[in-house]
Task: structure prediction
Amino acid sequence: MYNLDHNLDVSKLDLTKPQVMGILNVTPDSFSDGGKFLSIDKAVDRAYEMVMEGAALIDIGGESTRPGAQPVTEAEELERVLPVIEILSKALQIPISIDTSKPQVMTEAVKCGAGFINDVRALQEQGAIQTAKELDVPICLMHMQGEPRSMQHEPRYKNVIEEVKSFLLERVQLCEAAGIEKTKIVIDPGIGFGKSLEHNLSILKHLSEFVALGLPVLIGVSRKSMIGALLDEPADKRLFGGIALAAAACLAGATIIRTHDVKATSDALKICQALVHSK
Ligand code: 9MG
Result:
């Protein structure tokens, strides 16, 4: 049963019900113009489409964090994300999230109109906590063991639930000590980020323990390899598995579901909400 009694200070985001965060990866392989360059128009069109499909937040990322992904430079990341954020933040009524770990990208993105920071490194880069404090926008702190390029090489935990929970609590405490209000913090156990299939399943099974920490919980399972491992399907055939996991996460209390498949996820969350509110 979910607890949506949060008071997250995101002016245009209603977290009294579960919400969908639409993924907009602005990397050249996602929205190419037929060559190696990013097509800004195609990315903007996809964002509009996701809003029509029910997204309450659009998460824009210019650096892939998939297993095996190589880092990109700050200049490259800025060049990819800023033009899209600039257009969307003026055109859309919903908040734009910047998916980055780099303080300078956070700063420039918020200057361009982003109103949320999604950091898979939980503000561990040098200067990131101070930057987030100064920018004064809500943040998502995610757990990751290792780094994208190598994180899936034999991830190990003694107790994955306790270790991920205590990492997130420690990061929340550090943020609060730096002056970031708790009402601006979302937590995320980081499905697929330095975790085996068993670790991911265990986190999802015990998700209520993360919800019990009292902060909104964000979950991203969309098209991830855990679905591929369970169903033996490639990334483009993982929709049904992803919806099953999103619904399970929502019923366990997750407040934000990050997904590529906005319409299907949005419908599933409405069904979950109706179930939770039924007698
Ligand atoms: C950027 N990114 C990819 N997967 C993610 C997940 O599961 N959570 C968050 N917060 N960000 C993610």
